[in-house]
Amino acid sequence: MSSVVASTRFSVLDRSRVREGHSAPEALRDTVRLARRVEALGYHRFWVSEHHGVPGVAGSAPTVLAAAVAAATRRIRVGTGGVMLPNHRPYVVAEQFGVLASLFPGRVDMGLGRSVGFTDGVRRALGHGKDDAEGFAEQLRELLGWFLGDSPDARARPAEGLRVPPFVLATGAGAGTAARLGLPLVIAAVRGRERLVEAVEGYRKEFRPSVWAAEPYVVVASTVAVAGTPEEAHRLLLPEAWSAAYSRTHGSFPPLLPAEDVEELARHAMGAREREFYEAALTGHVAGTGEQVADQLAELVEATGAREVLVTTSTYDRAALVDSLTRLARLAGLGR
């Protein structure tokens, strides 16, 4: 086992993906069950996400789901990856995390992103437009201010005085915002290695210490698939890759299909444009046998200086996903 991998924290983000033939409520219950398993394996955090009006994703209320996860677990840190701040009033977000942190002290993380609704209809339903993401930095300052008690006109109870760790999910200018506000950074590894390293280096260069973080802290988010053979690991990637390709060509994320169904579609039913997106969605991930994955993770962590890897893998086969996370925990020496 690489010493680099052994000294790295590993966490899990679950998007509450809906599987073909199963319901959204089942997906949410699967998330809670997975959190218990991830805790038993020794992972550091378990995060949930925010998506609205998406057929293939059940998680639309991350603070509510985080509460259910925290109540079902005992030790693991629980949080959001993330709450999409343009969709909410910062005051209300502060109140929600204040309640969570009060109920589960020392266990709650506040991951924050700047994405708005996936479609025009969803954005209208949320009362926002695409341009609202441009005010993310100011919204973030306001949110943090409620915890610090900066406003003379109102108080956010019970958030004021609490220190719920904030993390910025890097999209667009997110890395620079995290640096200027002195916050930990979560950045996806699928951007291309050169762009990823450039963004992380820029974050470290611009970082200003704050009451939230004295030094830069980088979390790299990546799909990680570990199996007995490279072929088995590759098959774990197929359902999510097809879903991503479908969304790019049809405008909606569908429920995940079994890997064998995706293979059949790839052989007989994919158009040229969908195939192009599908093949692109299969690249840039960490996948293979334990030995191969250990080498890839060591390279990723060394290139970025990341202190933590956030595993974002989604696939149809829940048992295979748990097996992959178990293999990863074993090679990373978690739970020791």
Question: Top keywords for this entry?
Answer:
single chain; 336 residues; alpha/beta; TIM Barrel; eight-stranded parallel barrel; two-stranded parallel ribbon; globular
What would you note in describing this structure?
With 336 residues, the protein is of the alpha/beta class. Helices cover 48% and strands 13% of the residues. It has 13 helices and 11 strands. It has helices spanning 3-6, 24-41, 62-72, 90-103, 120-126, 136-148, 174-181, 193-206, 230-250, 259-268, 272-281, 290-304, 318-332; strands at residues 9-14, 45-48, 77-80, 83-84, 108-113, 166-169, 185-188, 218-222, 224-226, 286-288, 308-311. The strands form 2 sheets. The chain has an 8-stranded parallel beta barrel, surrounded by 6 helices.
Strand order of the largest sheet: 1-2-3-5-6-7-8-11
Major beta-sheet overview: 8 strands, parallel, barrel
Task: Indicate the structural class.
Answer: alpha/beta
Strand percentage: 5-15%
Extended strand count: 11
What's the N-to-C terminus distance?
Answer: 14 Å
Helical fraction: 40-55%
